[in-house]
Every structure is written in structure tokens, then in C-alpha cells.
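Help wanted!
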Amino acid sequence: MNQLKRFYSWIDERVQLSDLVNYMAKKYVPVHRHSIWYYFGGLSLFLFTIQVVTGILLLFYYKSSADLAFESIQFIMSKVQFGWLIRSIHSWSANLFILSIFIHMFSVYFEKAYRKPREATWLTGMIMFFLSLGFGFSGYLLPWNELAFFATKVGSDIAGAVPVIGEPIKIFMRGGEDVNGATLSRLFGFHVALFPGIFTIFLTLHLLLVQRQGISEPMHFEHVEKEEKKRMPFFPNFFLRDLLFWLLVLNLLAILAVFFPSELGKKADPFASAPAGIKPEWYFLFMFQSLKYLPANILFIEGEVFGVLLFGFAGVLWLLVPFWDRKSSRGQQNVLINYLGLFAVIFIIVLTILGWVL
Amino acid sequence: MKNILIFLLFFYLTANFGFSQNKSSEDQCFSCHDMLGGKPAELFKNDIHHLKGISCAGCHGGDSTSDDMDAAMNTRKGYTGVPKGDAISEKCVSCHSNPEKMKHYGSALPTNQYENIKSSVHWVNAIDGKEHIVQCITCHNAHGIVPVKNPQSPVYPINVPKTCSKCHSNEVFMRSYNPSLPVDQLQKYKTSMHGVLNSKGDSHVAECSSCHGSHDIKEVKDINSKVYPLNIPRTCSKCHSDSEYMKNYKIPTDQYQKFALSVHGKALLEKKDINAPACNSCHGNHGAVPPGVESISKVCGSCHALNAELFSNSPHKKAFDENNYPECETCHGNHEILTPTITMLGVDKTAICSKCHEENKNKKGYLVASQMKELLVRLETEEKKAGVLVDDAEQKGMEISEAKFKLRDVRQARLESRTMIHSFDLEKFKEIVDGKGLTTAKLVNEEAKAAIDDYYFRRYGLMASILVISIFAFSIFLLVKKIEKKSKNNS
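Answered by r_m:
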């Protein structure tokens, strides 16, 4: 213990670490019956860090060409020491990361934590959410296996259904008319350079805003006296709890990676016919399944186009919620927001289950 | 001059006859033409139609009861003269496709010839759009038509090859329809056992129509053709499996049964692999004969080229030739060739080698056979072991595709070694079994074992890491409790 203290003092003498510790100790986290949802912000950050670390390790061996991608993953899985573990953790942590940001986003939504003055925090978070979906979509193709190839084809076709801008977007995503080696290079570039770069900027902004504005308090705290508000210091109390949660998730990740390692399947063959039951990753499944239920034509437009436009519209509405939910910003209860959120959660869960089962 | 006198006499007689008796129940056409002489009338005398009372008018139209030439050959009475092109067959069909009419003449002949010929290659392959390749008379003749069973008929079994060859041996004619079709069928047929017996007057033996059909002849590539590869064994067996039909030829009739059980038969008849050999692949088709002792290896070697070459360069070649043993057949049989198994090799009682090689007789071969068997057994055992390990590793979810791929090399080496047996050279055999097969099998075994070990290592590693992480997590939990308790006490 003494050794540890001496080491801390050695660092402190040089970089004045105690200033930072004191600063963090003065930051408080509200304690109430919904406090548990605060941990998902930190968990998302932790999983993102794992993504970055394992992603960099995979980069040492991955080759982003249609001829070599599949084989390089095969090499990682069979020849590289702990390559299987790195890839499986990368894949599982990606899924848990998206699940975690879904939970984080909905908890912020239901707590109305986006209300004034945290509109920009919400916006940066939402942009990171969309970027995370982009990470998922672009990373899915990288193993260049049959499932990934056709899922990318279907996914980019859906994007292409958007009127006017759809086709150029599709061609931009694919790097040409069809999904081929150019698409792989392009999505690899997005996955390892463009998206991480943009994500880091928004993550920095997001964290700065959280630091500057503090952690949002629930709406009923506004009517509670300052002395009566329960809270805990961010450091070390909340930080250690956060760490505990991360360790539990790390255990879960290890179990998933060992018992359900990422499969590789068959190498993509652009000339083969699509295998039956092609499905996107689970986080796109609710949209994919919804489009399947739409009739061929709705009013005067194609059903699929209608669906894509509807999801686009809903996404914009969701993104801009701090600006149209004025009631919450005024500290008033907005039941409509709760109902809309509840509908969105039920819709996503039901459609995802249907997409999974059917 | 003589002819003119005969004509005048004929004209006088017929004119007077016509004057006195204008109508008659006799076939006046035939009466006149018979009197005039000439080939058609001569041939028609023995024509089945004439014998059945069908007059010339039956095919040529007109009034055969009138002795007045102008009246008899009047177009208003349906006289058509000599029919041309498809009109010829149409005349035949007008009766031969009409069961009522055929019954009227007491005929038991089928009435579906026209239907059959319409789907035949001779009808379908018309080139000028005006008429088809053959008409009924092409094969049956025109005026001298006799029943098929009559040796005079061009379609009597003995005459069929000659009849067909009129066109099929004519390069210029055949070129118009099928330039790639050989025109030497008759020549080959004459050299075949069928052809030899046919030329000796045996009407039982196969001729063209026995295999190709008669009216319904299809192209060989047509799946409905009797000589389409998949149908050949059945076509040949129609005669060759009929012990009653074959009793005079003193040859076995179980070839089809045996062939159906063979590796070739299963490939052809069950898997429908048209590249698998049918009867004609070994016996020839038009020149079908049983392959002689000296040519068996050439016949088998046309597909199994490497085996045949290795055998030809082996010490067995000389020994087999000297003892007059049929090469491949001695070990593999003929019609009932089964997938070779390891039991064929070696020196135990079931092994074929032991028929000639014993411990004290042909000793060198005995030793080679015994060592080859030992090596092959080892390779098979190692391959199976490797396969089981690879399956196990795969079922455990391990990435084992490279070892799986190498396992194919082991199988390939085993197959190669089976071919190399035909060299009867132990060193060459060892090179494949030891050098390729066993070495690769060892590698696969090692890789699969490593994958399985890795599988357990992962689980033990997981347990250890969970333990470490959990201890760390629990320590943090205790620390949090301690801090919170402390701050509670302070407050």
C-alpha cells in the first residue's frame, strides 16, 4: 500500500494529479431510483474503448481486399495467438456497445435529460448513435463472407430506394454499381478511419459537455431542496461503481467470446445466388422487418420507399426532440413524449423478435 | 420396232375390249401395265397390297375399274399420277393409320407408324421444308412391298443393314443432314459378332432397328433414344438377358444383372452419370464384339489411362501375357466390377494377389503385396483418425479449415496409391503412401489435436480470467462499501 502511495506521490509531484482528483471529487452524481441508467453512458465508453483496442489489434493482420479479406480473418482465427479471442471480443463488444447506446439513448429520452441546456449533448450523442450504426454496417462486410456480402447488398439497396438522393448514396456506399472489392475497400476506410475520426470529435464534445454541465438531474429534483438531494461523489464512489459494472460486462464478454466465438461462414461469391434467409444485424432488423410488412404501394409511392421515408422522418423527429419538446424544457411533464418513447421501444422489440423468429 | 408392235396390239385389244366391256371388277390399271411390262407392274405382282386386292388406284388415284385409259387416268376421278415427296407417305398413312381400313384387309399390323415417325430424327430433321428425309417407300420399297417377315423385304432383319446403309453410308447425302455423323456403320457392323451372324443369314441377331428402333428412331443425344447412354444397357439386355432368345448362342445372360451391381452400372443407372461406361464403351457399338484378352487393358485404359500405363510397364505385363491372362479382368472382373477395396490387396486368403503369390511361390510378389497392404492399411487408419479429430475440432467450433483442406490431400494420396498399386513397384508406392499420405495425415492429426487442446485451453483460460476479474470486481465492491460506510460515518 505504501508503495502505491509513493508511486502516486511521485506522479503527483510531477503532474499535480491531486488537482484532477480533487476536481473529480467535487463532481457529484444524483442518486435516485433511476440512477442505474447513468451507468450505460460509461459502459458505452468502456465498450467503445474495447472496440478501438481490439480493432487496432485486428488491423495488424487484416487485409482489406476481396481476394484476401476472408483468408486473413481465417488466419487470425486459426494461426494468430489469441486472434480468435480478439476477433470474438471485437464482434461481441460491438453488439453490446450498440445495445448499451440504445439503452443509454432511451434512458436519456425517458428522463428528458435532453432538455435545456443539454440539447447539444443530446445532438452529439445522437450523431454518435448513427455513427455506431455506421460502424456496425461497415464492419459487417469486412470478413467478406457470404452472409455479409448479401446483407450489404440488401442494405445498400434499401438506402437506394430513397427518392432522388437514394441512388447516389447507394453508389457512394458501394463505390460503384455493385457490391465488390471497391465496396470492401470503401467500407474498410469508413470503418477504421472516417467513422472513428468523426466519432472521436463528437465523443470529446459529448464528454466536455457532460463535464461542463454536470450529470443531468431528474425533473422532480427541481422541486427538491438542495440539501435534500441525494448524490454521490463522481470520484471515487461513482467511478468505482462504474468500474465494477465494466468488470462484470468484461466477464460476460469473455464468456460470450469463448462459448460463442464469431463464425466465419463461407467466402463471398459475387456470382452465387443469395442464400435463403438473409438478415441484417439485429439492430437493423426492426426496420428490415417493417419494410417486409408494407404493401407494394402506399398512396402513390412504392411501399419500400414509403417505409424508408417514414423511418427517415422518425429519425429526424427523434434527433430534434429537444427542440420540439418545449414542455420538458419548461419543467412540465410531457406525457406524449413518454407514450412516443414507449411505442418506439415496443415497436423495436416486437419487430426485432418477429424478424428473428420468422 | 418390236415394242411399237406390242403397243399397237395392246392398244387394239384394249380398245376392242373397252368397246365391248367398258367396266370390270378387275384392276384394269394392273391388267394394262402388266401387259405392257415394266418393273413396277412386275414388282406389284407380289406386292402385299396387290395380293390383298388393292389396286394401283389405291395409291395413284383414278378409276381402276375402267379399261378406258382416259377415263381411268382422269384427274376428275382422283388420278394423281406418281405421288411426290410427303404425298407418298400421306397415301400410305391414309390406310396404315386407319385401324378400320386395316382391319378390313385382315391386317394385324399396328397403326401408329405415322405417329412414331413424326417424332423420329428422319422426320424432324427435314432441311428443305418441303418434304421430310424419308418416306415410307425409302425403306419399304414402292411396288414390291412385302411383309417384314418376308426375306425379300428390305426391312427383313437380314436386309436392314443394307437398307439403312443406302443413305447412312453415303457421305454426300449424310453431309446435308449431319456432317459429323460417321458413315462407316455398315463396315463396322460387318466386323461385329452381330454382323457376322447376320451375313450368315441369322435373322435373330441385332441389326440397326434392334437398337435404334424402326419408325421412332431418335438422335443418340435424345434422352428417349434407345441408344442414349442411360438406355443402352436396357436396350442390349432386351436380347442379352433373355435366356430363351439367347439359348442358341451359348453365352451367359446375366451381364445386365452384374453390370447393374457394378461401380460402372451404379454410376450410369443410379447416379445417371452419362460419362460412366455403358455396354458399348467396352464392346463397341456398331462393331460390337467381346474384347479379346489382349485388348482388355486397352479398352479399360481408354478411361483408366494411368492404371493401364502403369500396368503395361509393370512386371505383371509380361507374366500375364505369357499366361494368357486378361489384364484388368483377372483382378477386377468384367461386368460386375466393384469398387476396389483393400481386401483385394495382400497375401491373405481373400486377397487376389494370393491367387498367384504364395510364401514359397513367386516370393518377391508375395513380399511386395504384403508390404503394400500394410502401408495402405496404415494410411487408411491414419486418414480415419485424422478425419475423426478434424470433425471433433470442427464440432467444437474451432477454425480448422486448413487442416480440413489438408485432409483432402491425404485422401488424394490414398487414391493415388491405389492407382500406383498397378505399377507393383514398392518404392514408387512408398513414395506416395509414406511421402505424401502419412506425412500429411500426421500434420492434420497434429493440427486437429492442437485445435482440440486449444478448445480446452480456452475454457480453462476463461475460468481463470473470470476468477481474476471476479476477485478484482469483488475487491472493488468491498472498497465501494468501505468508502460509502466511511463517508456515511463522516456525515
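OP: Thanks! One thing I noticed: The first strand of chain A starts at residue 28 and ends at 30.
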